Each structure stands twice: as structure tokens, then as C-alpha cells.
């Protein structure tokens, strides 16, 4: 099974690739549009700012490629956020890829430190293959200041001041606000499960 990790110019590319190597999968990091379009599975990573990530995607000519993927796609952290229609970050709202309806907004931490950084628990909202072998209440690792609201596409949520979407699914799109590549055995299981989700 071939997995292509989209080279968005962000910092967590190597850690995701190494996480798959530990699973015995030789994931490829690429910004080649044809290679991404032909991949059986695509991962969209991201760390940093939404405006920068979207500029990288546009400058590399990848926006139309990503917007037309039909195979399973997994967005991770900022990679999840840019799958949405709009991101309320920067001097003005940033237009995302529009593959998931809705907007990303600043997380209301209710006075707790921002960004939300560290281990926190998942609360299940639906039964999905990507959650196979994961237990309601398992811990995963977060680093973020922005998030999606809980909606009908949320399959797991988390709470940090405010409840937010931790995992969403919309058609062929899966997305995790946390970092599965940094979430120990639970994250490794999610990455493995992504290889098995139906096409």
C-alpha cells in the first residue's frame, strides 16, 4: 500500500514518514501533482500558520490536485484545518481547500493557556473504521490554537475550555486535529487504520 505525504513545506513531514516506517510502510513525501493524484492514500500534514500553508499549496500548483482527490485523504493538525472552507487566521480570513464544509476559528480556551498543547482525551461521536481498536477516552497529543466546531461530521471530539472536533469525516476526507505521529500506540493505530478505510 503506497501512501503519499503531501510536501506542504511544513515541519512534521519527516515525523509522519517515520511513523509509517515503524508500521512497515514506506510512505513517500512529494509535491508532485501526478504522484499525489495517483496515490491510493494521501496525507495532508501541517504545522504553523494557515496563510503560509495555503500559499505553499497554491505556489506549488497543488490546490486543484488536492481539491479533486477521490481516494482517502487524511489531514493532520493544520492539514486538517486547511481542508475546511475558511480559516479565521491572519489579518483576514484565509480561504481553505473547501473539501469539508465549515470554518476553523480560534479555540476559546476559557482562560486556559493557548495554544492547547499536550495530551488530552477523545470522546467518540460515531463508529468509524479509523477508530478501530481505539477506546473512548484514549489520550492523543495536541498542539493548536484554532479548531473546528463539533458538527454532524465529527466522529470524535475533545474539550479544552470549549468542546471542539478532534476527528472529522466527510466523504473520502478524514482529519485529525491532534498529531497521531506523536500520540504513541493510539496514534499509530489511527495511522494504520487509515490504510484500511474503504475507498
Topology, pairings included?
Layout: E1 3-6, H1 13-22, E2 28-30, H2 33-38, E3 41-44, H3 50-59, H4 63-67, E4 73-76, H5 78-81, E5 84-87, E6 94-95, E7 100-106, E8 116-121, E9 123-124, E10 139-144, E11 146-148, E12 154-160, E13 162-170, E14 173-176, H6 184-194
Parallel strand pairs: 1-2, 1-3, 3-4, 4-14, 5-7
Antiparallel strand pairs: 5-6, 7-11, 8-10, 9-12, 12-13, 13-14
How would you explain this protein's 3D organization?
With about 200 residues, this protein is an alpha/beta fold. The protein has a single domain, classed as Class I glutamine amidotransferase (GATase) domain (Rossmann fold), CATH 3.40.50. The chain has 6 helices and 14 strands.
Number of domains: 1
Question: Largest beta sheet: what is the strand line-up?
Answer: 2-1-3-4-14-13-12-9
CATH class assignment: Alpha Beta
Mean pLDDT value: 94
Instruction: List low-confidence stretches.
Output: none
Radius of gyration: 15 Å
- Can you count the beta strands? 14
User: Per CATH, which architecture?
Assistant: 3-Layer(aba) Sandwich
Helix content: 10-25%
| Overall geometry | globular
Order of helices and strands: EHEHEHHEHEEEEEEEEEEH
The CATH superfamily label reads Class I glutamine amidotransferase (GATase) domain
Q: Which structural class should the secondary elements be placed in?
A: alpha/beta
Any key phrases for this structure?
single chain, 4-stranded mixed sheet, 23% helix, 199 residues, 8-stranded mixed sheet
Amino acid at each position: 500500500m503506497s501512501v503519499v505525504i503531501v510536501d506542504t513545506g511544513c515541519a512534521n513531514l519527516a515525523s509522519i514518514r517515520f511513523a509509517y516506517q515503524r508500521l512497515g510502510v514506506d510512505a513517500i513525501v512529494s509535491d508532485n501533482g501526478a504522484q499525489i493524484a495517483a496515490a491510493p492514500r494521501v496525507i495532508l500534514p501541517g504545522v504553523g500558520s494557515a496563510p503560509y500553508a495555503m500559499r505553499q499549496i497554491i505556489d506549488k500548483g497543488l490546490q486543484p490536485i488536492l481539491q479533486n482527490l477521490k481516494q482517502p485523504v487524511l489531514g493532520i493538525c493544520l492539514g486538517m484545518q486547511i481542508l475546511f472552507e475558511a480559516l479565521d487566521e491572519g489579518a483576514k480570513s484565509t480561504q481553505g481547500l473547501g473539501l469539508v464544509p465549515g470554518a476553523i476559528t480560534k479555540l476559546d480556551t476559557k482562560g486556559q493557556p493557548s495554544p492547547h498543547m499536550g495530551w488530552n482525551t477523545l470522546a467518540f461521536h460515531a463508529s468509524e473504521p479509523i477508530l478501530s481498536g481505539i477506546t473512548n477516552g484514549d489520550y492523543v497529543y495536541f498542539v493548536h490554537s484554532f479548531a473546528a466546531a463539533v458538527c454532524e461530521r465529527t466522529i470524535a471530539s475533545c474539550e479544552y475550555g470549549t468542546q471542539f472536533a478532534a476527528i472529522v469525516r466527510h466523504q473520502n476526507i478524514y482529519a485529525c486535529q491532534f498529531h497521531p505521529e506523536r500520540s504513541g500506540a493510539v496514534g499509530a493505530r489511527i495511522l494504520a487504520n487509515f490504510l484500511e478505510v474503504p475507498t
